[in-house]
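Box 3.1 — From sequence to structure: Selenocysteine methyltransferase
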Amino acid sequence: MASLISDLLRQTGGTAVIDGGLATELERHGADLNDPLWSAKCLFSSPHLIRQVHLDYLENGADIIITASYQATIQGFKAKGFSQEESETMLRTSVEIAREAREVYYERCAGCCSGDGAQGRILKKRPILVAASVGSYGAYLADGSEYSGDYGDAITVETLKDFHRRRVQILADSGPDLLAFETVPNKLEAEAYAQLLKEEDIKIPAWFSFNSKDGVNVVSGDSLMECGSIAESCNKVVAVGINCTPPRFIHGLIVMLKKVTTKPIVIYPNSGETYDADLKEWVQNTGVTDEDFISYVNKWCELGASLVGGCCRTTPATIRKIYRALSSSQSATLATK
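Predicted structure (token representation):
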């Protein structure tokens, strides 16, 4: 399983680019995401917009695109009136859309001979992975608890396994290259994911990415190093890292993860803006500029990050700048050898 990521990194020169924020871009294309399903609403309301956002990221240098299934759960769809069958179909659709976008991108590459930067687009035939997103139980609740990790005493590992089980089975069987367990807010859910991958004998690899609001622990207050150790000990997990966390915290978090894992480090922070869970919106003017964000990227890679992208509020422009920064760094490294 580990060969999937190692093969990608070997072909990309040691670092690979993940895509950026999905919801922000869907809204920019006209989607109304004021809904408990958030970006997953577009799976039935406007799948063409999801495909377009995937393509935008591919044409700006992403090597890995993440499906629109972060907040897509069977329980969430059924609460909106969909049947079990319809809910399962929409999970499969999230993967199909990403795979279709990859094929369209490859067709565009084949039809363009100028390669890098055709009409302002990066049209370069390269390995592209589809990662099926699995958001936390807190994301389903849509009450901001994915940013606190506080699920209450009634929620156990078994509760979480039962909640995620069918969804993970469907996503894994829908043809993605890997599963991305994202914004994992506490140790309990990490344990549930690790056990579920083993119990269900999931055949494709996975990554675990945690979020932090203090630069030391995951958002629940659980030790990041303990959470990272869970990922390290699960042979189904091929990368571990951090997402949806302010860029200023990433340096120290990578250092901590490197103490407990030998697996590739995946890093895709948010823009640094503050999210107001009560208003369900991002507080304006609280983040960093793209330039500041990009200034961190090579430092993260020097520390050991090998998969780098963006999360909430980052854009295709951000991802293009990451692609350029990593390409420049790789060229400089080759020039010195």
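Summary of the box: The two ends are 31 Å apart (CA to CA).
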